[in-house]
Amino acid sequence: MKIDEISTPELRGGQNDLHSQLCSQIESSIKDIEKHVPGTALPDSFSTDLRRSISQLNSLSPYPNSVKLHIWKLSYRLWNACVDLSNAAGFKTWGHKIDEEHAKLRQVSADLLFLACDVSGIPSPAIKSASFFYKTGLIWHDLRKFEHANYCFEKATDLLSKVEISTISENEEKRFLLDLNIARSRTAWEVSDRNLAVALLSRSKSMLFAVAENYKALANQYLTFGKAILSKNEVSGVNEALRLMNDALELCERGLTVVKRTEDTLALKELRSKTLRFLAAVHLQRDEFESVLKCVKVLRNGEKDQHPSLSVLAMKAWLGLRRFGEAEKELRGMVVDKGIPEGVWVSAVESYFQVVGAAGAATVKGVFLGLLGRCHVSAGAAIRVVSKVLGDPAGAGEEARLRAKVVSDLVSDDRILTLLSGEDTSKERTAMHALLWNCAAEHFRSKDFQTSAEIFEKSLLYSPSDIESRNLRAKGFRVLCLCYMAVSQLDRAQEYINEAEKLEPNIASTFLKFKIYLQKNEPDGAISQLQAMPSRLDFTTEFLSLAAHEAIVCRCHPVTVASLSLLLNFYPTGKQMPTTEVVVFRTLVTTLSQGPQNDSDILKQMKRAHTRLSELGADKFFGKGEIGRRERNWFSVNAWNSGVKTGQEDQHALSAEFFRLASEFYGASIDEEKEGNHVMVCKSLIMTVSAIISDERQRKSTLLENEVKEAISLLDRAGKMLMSSSTEYDKLEAIIEPKLLFMYTWCAFDLYSRLDDTGSQQLLLIKRFANSKCCNPNHLLQIGIDASQGPRSNHEVATFALSTCLSILLASSSPDYESVALILRKLVCLRSIHGADSNDDATMETYKQAYRIMVGLKEGEYPVEEAKWLAMTAWNRAAIPVRMGNMDEAKRWMSMGLELAKKVPGMQTYRSCMEDFVAGF
């Protein structure tokens, strides 16, 4: 039957039977608990069933004394069962759930005992019940269930409040009163009720009963609270911590006046010393350095075995007073005192250096090395000291250099090296290497390369020498190479990079060797490193691009050319490239242009660029839009300018190649443009053919027939691009200079003269040129002279060109009679050679024309020598008709010669002879 089914006591045989029944149920639950296997989870049903039974039992109070005794026994039985379970399994091995269920059972036991706390026949039942609540509260406190703990402590306090303190005679019960107050104070502290916690400690001062342990316990709790406030580093809490520690010190002093046993005295003195040390720490935090020194003085006077922290406290106080000499004495005194733990003096060294800074670096080094000589120092301590001496890794300036110098001396000391050389200090060696590396890296970033190199070298002392660490050591050597390159110690930099390459032959080492050769102005060595780069496993084309930039900065043109040429080899492979191919070509050509006598190399690279242009197309090679047009124009203009330059230097073969490339570059279309630079293409083609002919004459050789045809095709291509069949020269005149038009005509004439059956084409070509608006008499004169001589002469072209030129000259307001005389001589010669008898009249007409020209001229205006030549040749032409008996013809020529002689000054004697001969003829 369940208890909650009972309605009234009368229905079940009275209230006593109900008490017995509830007690039986409680006892049954306790038996189940006693049978529970230790170490397994306690089910919730135990505490739930017991709590229900106690609630029903509580509603049936008051109880007869016999029932109270029974409840009392059941409570103790439950308590003991809980103790047995905890002893068997151990709280530490239980999980949180098991602990909480256990605490609930303890709580049930305390509540059950509370129902019978006024039982007769048992001494001090209230104190015993209160102890159950106290112990249960401690368990709840440990579980951080502070509400339950506070409930238990308050229950215990209420029970003890009904007991007169004067009736308590046993020390254990007196101590229980104090412990309860302290426990309740601790719980209040945990829930941040500091006022209540301190008030409960103050109330506990009346419960000391002149017992040394009580004084010690209460003073220790004051100290604990003070330390807790101090540990939070709250400025507002320092004063409160100081008050609590002063209370603790006062309790220690009072306790020492009442204690009698030696061991109690020693315990209180030890607590007092501890309190004084913490008081000194509080004063130090408040910058009350004089008070710190007073506390230290009291402690040193009262203790034979001084605590290690006293030297640290004293040193920090002296540092606070800026009395560095006394602080240094305290620091050096730690070296002598072998009882000071390692952690204490390391902390002291850190504190000293933090205040004194770089000025105390040498002292710290001396102290630390002294410590190494007197005792065993751990590797971790060395790391801490080095870290503190280095300070902020991002520091710079003179102080940072001084710190680095001290660290350099410190870490290179044999004692430090020995300390970190064991197999069990590998982590510390790694940490030391990292410290030194980071320090050196900061100095490197601040461009203090000398200091950086020194620290990097020291870091190598702590770099592992095993195979797995080869890369790390190689990295160190490479960084040292960079440092010494920065300070221009190139030989030393080369030594380090050679060592790095032995350990790790990668692209970085090769590139640094390249830079060293470049800075040493050894282009052959630099080029050899360039050629070695592609063989490295981690090679990327970015390194060739960087190498080119470095060479450009150093103005080392051979290396620049080599790096760019090598870089160009990778574009056809389809690899990811650092820049566009056209930029590389442009840079390469620009570099070659800056050196002397590089025209052949420039031509080679521009041909190479043209090949890539043909393979990729203009849009892909030059780029699209305005950028592509600018790139195309750059190559076109440079090819043109190179053609002009080489032509002026009489390198006509190169000039022809450059002009041909210019025509190809100008003709490239960007972004599907319909019209390119057709004018420049035409000009380039004309200049190409002109350079070919000039080269032929320079070499004194003759073009082969296929070469002639190729040159003609180039001219035809120029004409077809810009002219129509009907108005060729009209169009041509509008777009190109007269000089180029003449060059086009002259080249075409020259080339046509080399082929059979092209005479009519030559004449048509010259006639069209003569009819053009830009026709120049000098150009016609040159064509006429060229056509009149040599194995490929054309007397028709020559006669036409010279005659046309003569007409143009005579039409001028101030004719050039030097040219007129030359033309007349050439015409006479041409007609004499090619005219035979049928053309004698034409020759005579030429002489007559010359005579008519000379008529009316001032003396000497017509070239005298040319006039004499005309007169003499005309007279001499009569010789053949005389011999042939053709007297009329002879007389005609003699008359012409005599008439011309009359116009020539200085021929009087000749003229008299001529007249006499004619008279006698």
TrEMBL record:
Pfam families: SPO22 (PF08631)
Gene Ontology process terms (BP): meiotic cell cycle; regulation of synaptonemal complex assembly
Keyword Ion transport belongs to the record: no
Keywords: Meiosis
InterPro entries listed in its UniProt record: Spo22/ZIP4, Spo22/ZIP4/TEX11, TPR-like_helical_dom_sf, TPR_rpt
Top-level taxon in the UniProt lineage: Eukaryota
Matching PANTHER family: SPORULATION-SPECIFIC PROTEIN 22 (PTHR40375)
Protein name per its UniProtKB record: Protein ZIP4 homolog
Species of origin: Nicotiana attenuata
Gene name for this UniProt entry: ZIP4_0
